[in-house]
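Lecture notes, unit on binding sites. The following record was shown on slide 14. It pairs a sequence with flavin-adenine dinucleotide.
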Amino acid sequence: MNERFLEKLRSTVEVEDVIVEKETISKLSKDYYWYSPVLDAELRDKEADYVVIPDTHEKVKNVLQLAVEEKVPVTLRGAGTGNYGQAIPMNGGLVVDLSKLNQVIKIADGFVTVQAGMRIRDLEKQLHVTDQELTIYPSTFVKATIGGFIAGGSGGIGSVTWGNLWDGNVLSAKVLTMNDTVTELVLEGEELLDYIHSYGTTGIITEVTIPIKQQTKWVQELIGFDHLHEALAFSKSIAEATRWKKRLVSVVEAPIPTFFRPLKKALQGYDGHAVLLEIAEENHYRLQEHALTFNGKSLYTVGAESYRKGIGISDFTWNHTTLWALKADKKWTYLQNFFSLDHVQKQIGLIKEQFGDEVLIHIEWLRDRGSLVPAGLPLVKYESKERLYEIIEFFNEIGASVNDPHTYLLGAGGWDLQLESIANKKKENDPYNLLNQEKMPTQDAIKQMVN
Ligand code: FAD
């Protein structure tokens, strides 16, 4: 810790904006990296020297200007719910927590402009007042910030209809750079692709405009199946047909539903496979009938009037499924992969044959760049790093390509990012390489990944 820098920092903002308690600094230096036993070992000891929580745009800008002048590394933080250690500072320095930059700037018909640190649930609450809602959001929406989602996430609830972040779900953004004079950029269209899911390596998002839709009355439903192939076929029939208006279609293999502790009473010990859905109220009456044709039985329904009251179905989907598994047994970890739309049943059959209960299937149906994809978030009983990568290799060999969630390196996780362009943008916007150091792979590594 550099006392001179600390003094300058305190005089740039207000004294109470600067965190000095060691324990709080440690907490605000971490995210959910421990989901991965590999990252847990690599990142456990990393932490910032200073944390600042500015509550105005002006303060954020001044803090960044100071960091540039003093050449202090900067790592940005929303709510720290990322899974890949994206928000963890690798070389100490300054964590800038943006969670107090949380004002709605404008809600219009079809879009909202908001400061980056706003929590996603709070934002949707405000949208509901205007009978509108978000297109997509992560299952961590209670805590996660909109800026953190855009810079560190990919998709979530809503993605089965509206796609991922880069599918038109960000309309424009204001970004600060780390040039000698900290500069504000206003970005839209293709330019945004250098900032979405870039872990804050290319700039600091301070404000975003995102599309919103007319509010729908969503019913939440959990449907049980004796056979995984029937659960899959049913989920696919819902995911692919536009006549079903939906926000969420997830599939979990038995005995994953037994991990959902808060549903224990409602599910009465049910230990089979399940499909979890959010479906428009006007479609709901046909759903249970449709499920019966696949031998599915409705086990738990939350009516539209109870939406956002208490725990919801989405609290058991996306990476929350892994969270409940971890609560049941700390040995669970997970992978991310894309199954093939046409061969998903066969690929799953091969995985089950090879690994049995060492791998449990979890699928989130989503659209990526227009195509429907059964995206996997399978649970894996962790034995060792070697074994984990053997499993990954098998997935890749059968065409169920893995986005490795056990690395903090940008792009190594597999999303089809324009990595070379992002690396060039970083050089342009962050010439002293202060932003989120070591998350950007080396030039050689990028070349290998791209080829
Ligand atoms: P943080 O974790 O604080 O930051 C994420 C990254 O963005 C970091 O690299 C950080 O440095 C950078 N960053 C933060 N704010 C800014 C900013 N203003 N400008 C530039 N860079 C910034 N993700 C999904 O996409 N979909 C899911 O459904 C999903 N489910 C999850 C479930 C669980 C239980 C957990 C633990 C994680 C899940 N995630 C999911 C990952 C994560 O929760 C989301 O991506 C979330 O939106 C991150 O928001 P955050 O505010 O916590 O960001």
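Take-home: The radius of gyration is 22 Å.
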